[in-house]
Write a structure and sequence with these properties.
The protein has seven helices and six strands; from the N terminus they run E-H-H-E-H-E-H-E-H-H-E-E-H. The chain has a six-stranded parallel beta sheet with strand order 3-4-2-1-5-6, sandwiched between helices. The protein starts with 30 loop residues before the first strand and ends in an 8-residue tail after the last helix. By secondary structure, the protein is an alpha/beta fold. The structure holds farnesyl diphosphate (FPP). Farnesyl diphosphate (FPP) binds next to helix 1, helix 2, strand 2 and helix 3.
């Protein structure tokens, strides 16, 4: 179903910002989160069904994972399916939820050889069994890798995450001897799907909209945002590097001066 594109193609000019060798652990965001928007519009512009845009979107996923590896990003979180996306027509939902399996079937060996670790954030329970199993297989087979952590946010919604975290924390307050005085931001964060993962430094949204759409609400308190009109299937390493370059020029003050 998916057409395989090469995972690595190392030809690049050293001088330009497009040269990924410029990026080191010191000047690259540790955690980049992406809202991959615009697939439906990309397809509509070409007179194609919406799902053709999602399929083409997988090629962008491959390019951006590859770029993130080269730029030494530590965590890349991709908003793959939100808790609100269940409102879409059933065939489109089924199509989107089949994509991770197709992607992993084709690219897991490349991901493993590039030291990528697969993880998820979101509620895996309600996903089709085949999707869940394919992702779990990839998680199990990459768990010892210590390069890029590739996080699929799938059946993810931030408000749901925060409410769940609060319920679990309250349960611990009632049953496990946790005291209200022990509750602070750090402890609360441990109940979120993102426990142990640094907050996103940079959040990219493609497709022209400028909103968070229930993505990483707690975690993005001090995240730098970068928006582009480019539709996700057209998003390439070039745009990704523009975003990283702009990030390098931002001064983050975290409320200080
Ligand atoms: C939003 O665009 C996109 C989605 C809800 C699906 C995103 C999924 C992918 C890009 C495929 C991911 C695959 C892997 C392997 C991670 P939209 O449909 O809302 O676009 P529109 O705003 O133009 O209608």
């Amino acid at each position: 179903m998916l057409k395989k594109i090469p995972f690595f193609n190392n030809k690049q000019s050293k001088a330009s910002i497009h040269n990924t060798e410029r990026y080191t652990e010191d000047n690259t965001p540790d955690h980049v989160a992406i809202i991959m928007d615009g697939n439906g519009r990309w397809a509509k512009k070409r007179g194609m069904p919406r799902v053709a845009g999602h399929k083409e979107g997988v090629s962008s996923v491959v390019k951006i994972v590859k770029a993130a590896v080269k730029c030494k990003v530590k965590v890349l979180t991709l908003y793959t399916f939100s808790t609100e996306n269940w409102k879409r027509p059933k065939p489109e939902i089924e199509f989107i939820l089949r994509l991770p399996k197709g992607f992993l079937h084709m690219y897991l060996p490349d991901l493993i050889s590039n030291n990528v670790r697969i993880e998820t954030i979101g509620d895996m329970e309600n996903l089709p069994a085949t999707t869940r199993e394919a992702i779990q297989y990839a998680i199990d087979h990459t768990q010892d890798n210590d390069g890029l952590q590739l996080n699929f946010a799938i059946n993810y919604g931030s408000r749901h995450e925060i409410l769940n975290a609060m319920k679990e924390m309250l349960t611990d307050i009632n049953d496990a001897g946790l005291s209200l005085d022990d509750v602070d931001e750090q402890r609360f964060s441990r109940y979120l799907y993102t426990a142990g993962i640094p907050d996103p430094d940079l959040l990219i949204r493609t497709g022209g909209e400028k909103r968070l759409s229930n993505f990483l609400l707690w975690q993005s308190a001090y995240t730098e945002f970068w928006f582009t009109d480019v539709l996700w299937p057209d998003f390439s390493e070039k745009e990704f590097l523009y975003a990283l370059e702009e990030f390098r020029q931002r001064r983050r003050r975290y409320g200080g001066i």
